[in-house]
From TrEMBL:
InterPro entries: Acylphosphatase-like_dom_sf (IPR036046), BLUF_domain (IPR007024)
Top-level lineage group: Bacteria
SUPFAM superfamilies attached to this UniProt entry: Acylphosphatase/BLUF domain-like (SSF54975)
Every BLUF domain range: 5-97
Entry protein name: BLUF domain-containing protein
Organism: Brevundimonas kwangchunensis
Length: 137
């Protein structure tokens, strides 16, 4: 099952930044269904029209899903910032989870997305910590 397990992360820009939050609800519904089917786990953060998504699973499932995502006109300028082989999942409990945008969390989400180019591993860990606190709260 864990054969070929990889983690990828990408950054992209919403085509309609003002609608990014509304789109998030639609995206999550479809993603959750597909990702559970494909044994993918991960998280999606959005802030100020910027997306940052982490996905984990078998390499071939990641490739297929990433190809669909990259062709989605709701965003552009997709840039994969990390792709690594891993032994275990960091987002194992979530088919797809999103940071809810409480105004108080906006700076934290912004900071994670700012960081994803220079230090993607740290950004991914910060995203996981943020989501764990959010779910626990
Ligand atoms: C920022 C962003 C993230 C997305 N993440 C996922 C995802 O994790 N899994 C997924 O199946 N689709 C995701 N999508 C949606 C895909 O682009 C595509 O619309 C969907 O996979 C089509 O699914 P369907 O063929 O079952 O209708 C995402 C789209 C955007 C814009």
């Amino acid at each position: 099952m864990s054969l070929n397990l990889q983690r990828i992360a990408y950054y992209s820009l919403a085509s309609q930044p003002e609608a990014a939050l509304i789109m998030l609800a639609e995206i999550l519904g479809v993603s959750d269904r597909n990702n559970v089917r494909d044994s993918l786990t991960g998280a999606l953060l959005v802030s100020r029209g910027r997306f940052f998504q982490v996905l984990e699973g078998a390499a071939q499932d990641l490739d297929r899903t990433l190809a669909r995502i990259a062709a989605d006109p709701r965003h552009h300028s997709l840039n994969v910032v990390l792709r690594v082989d891993v032994n275990r999942r960091m987002f194992g409990q979530w088919g797809m989870v999103a940071a809810r945008i409480a105004p108080s969390q906006q700076p934290e989400i912004d900071a994670i997305i700012d960081r994803c180019h220079d230090d993607p591993a740290a950004a991914i860990k910060a995203a996981r910590d943020l989501l764990e606190h959010q779910i626990a709260a």
